[in-house]
Write a structure and sequence with these properties.
The protein has 238 residues and is an alpha/beta fold. The chain is built from 10 helices and 7 strands. The chain has one domain: Rossmann fold (3-Layer(aba) Sandwich), CATH 3.40.50. The longest helix is centred in the middle third of the chain and has 16 residues. It is globular. The two termini are 12 Å apart.
Amino acid sequence: MRLEPGVERLVDEVVQRGAAADAAFDADGTIWAGDIGEELLRELVQQRRLIDPPPENPYGIYERLFCAAPSRAFSFCVEVMRGLPVAEVERWSDEIVRRHFAAQVFPSIRGVLDRLLAAGVRVWIVSASNAVTVRRAARALGLDEGRVLAVEGAVDRLGCFTGQVLPPVTCSAGKVEALMKKLGGRRPEIAFGNSLFDREMLEHAHRAVMVAPEESEGLAVKLARERTWPVHRVQRSH
């Protein structure tokens, strides 16, 4: 699937800047279809892997929090992993990536990533999913795990999650905060996102692209029209 002319022009401009440029991408719904953090939580619950789960179904708690306070919901996904070894979460994440997400990467976005990387552009993934799982997905895609900014959980000396979330929570304004800390206040040359949770990051970048499924006209597309950002339509690789 080719890029729309408006998106192509913006990507060309960033490619020309090469190693002087940074690019920021949301992950879920932007690089691949689906939500990788939600998928991990579902598996942790269904396979009874949580060490000290709350009495209520944790996924139900997540969904309720998401409706009221999304950042709190994303934090909960990390908090509920208290006591789990990071190495085990990495292994489970690798399985999820292999089974569900390796084939869900949008081919056109994969092409954009490859072009930017070939030009020396520093590519950052900024996601509200848990950092361990997003890093494993980045690794599978051949991207730099060190340039993943996602929801971080504190780890104890035994390599297990403590249940504490390290700020900032990379949702909405938290995405900009995380980028500014890493980039020293430098703004990304371009940002790609797919939801209202990416608005601040898209506004922060010099150039912005909204990613949306074909024929979708939801709130994110409406925002892009208001901001005159190009909308890039995606379809799954299968």
